[in-house]
């Protein structure tokens, strides 16, 4: 019960419920005002304008939000006018539906916000089919009132944001902290769950993608706002928390451990890993609690559990050395020490978040120049050339637009020929369900049908209990609030609530509610069936055929990140910003690759060609990211020795191997380098440094100098970690090249 109450509190205090209240207020208020002044006949047009332009109101830059809603207002007014004027002319109307469906759906090439504006435009086309206006005067009046409704929603949205300017960003930060907490706990399980690692790694890919998506939205929201008087204290706090989440995510990524090596070193000593595993769990749970407190605005929890778990992990290193004995225990102890250092870094960032949330005055200020800040933003290109580049069957979005157009035209013709009651409900179902890939379309179809059935059953039950129109009106408003609040979090629940809302709104107009329910369910099933069949039959977009460009981008960004890490080793101060930008670009590229792989898993089994090979390509890229990040993280957080010639030679070898993989995908003959013997010599030199330091340490131990100073420990860690990571990276890059050759042969 306590957990349910906490979840209810988080939901009611969160931005999703706030959004539901905002949209419902904007929809209902015009009706109340116009009804009070006796102009209730004008209210539906205004309410339609509000409803149509709400989708584009998503978290992010205020400027982009306003521009998006204004474009949405203009687009919905134009499309509504075209459909209403052409309704008497069936052939022209059919042509208009086809053209609008294709052109407007193609707007999605301009990014997520543009896809929501596109959705508003398509929704306006369908709703226009449901509206009956006989004269030009009525049509122009309706369009004008729609525009007023859109502007009214913009005003309401702006007002709500001024009343609670922190809510959207706080929700994004809370979601990010929770996802990272879950990710940390998953990484803890990876440490010892040998048989479940493949499943856990696939779960990790999903979490990585979700975290990167949150980070991208936060970058837009926190970096693009220009404030005349500078950032406020709370803006500063949000930015500090965001930067800490970035740092935490990178540190986690930097410790994608060589689990085969860990299994070998701790084969019979798994108990010595438990303290590190427990610390990861405690850190993850603490982040989740902080995410909740950020929404609840409550006192942050005690840090005692964190310090206790950290102390346990530190003691585990000593216990391992005492159990296994030096020098045999040295490699295992260094693995535990590196793991401990990484977890200590995580704790430092978590403590930074705690200080910010506790309003500690000494919390450091953010110093980020505008030119540096802009480097972290992913700019969306809005030139018309972007559309022209996508006017090809090679473009997934082009095929989707064509497929969507055929589905819409077919559904309209089917409804007209068969004289289906409320054909526009079929079209509406297609709009909200059909997506560029088959898997998501199938999932949304199932959720839509199940949600509609649940909503219909609930509505029938209420109608059987009472015919009170006041209850219908209250339920219509309440269901509208919760529908908009849940539609992005839980589509099935959102669909159920939308169905309840539609049924009760219709029940206020038409007493025969059972007829409304009947047609709603039938039309939803028809629309979902058309959407699934269209995705499967018409120019299908199987993910196996779409991964080449995403994979190529990930390979290029991996190489760039590797070279940026090399520069960082040579001059930390001078090259830190370039390293962070390369890191950000790579994380986005890997996120896109992970997302593509997740879509592949949703395709029919018969279409998942070479699944194991593609999985290998994804995980190899991911592991290379982590291996490189572990070197970068060590360089940033430790005082290091000068980069050696051998280090540069290994980096060059790995970068060249990655470049050969790129060349293979691009169809360019790779320039194979025969430097095997030279690289073997370089490896020996790199490993010899650790051996020399180990021998020196063994001699000191024999002389009775058991204590080790910090400088010597860091030198041992550097001499062990960097050469081993480089050798591992070389092996990974060569395996990736082999996998890329196999992949290119099936294209």
TrEMBL record:
User: Which residues span the membrane?
Assistant: 31-54, 66-85, 91-109, 116-133, 139-160, 401-418, 452-485, 491-509, 521-539
**What sequence ranges are listed for the domain Integral membrane bound transporter?**
411-533
Q: Where does the record place the Integral membrane protein YccS N-terminal domain?
A: 75-328
Organism of provenance = Algibacter miyuki
Keyword Transmembrane: yes or no?
Answer: yes
Q: What is the lineage of its organism?
A: Bacteria, Pseudomonadati, Bacteroidota, Flavobacteriia, Flavobacteriales
Locations listed in the record? Cell membrane
According to its UniProt record, which protein family does this protein belong to?
Answer: Belongs to the YccS/YhfK family.
What membrane topology term does the record carry?
Multi-pass membrane protein
The UniProt keywords, alphabetically, are: Cell membrane, Membrane, Transmembrane, Transmembrane helix
* Protein's name according to its UniProt entry: FUSC family membrane protein
Major localization listed first in the record, in broad terms:
membrane
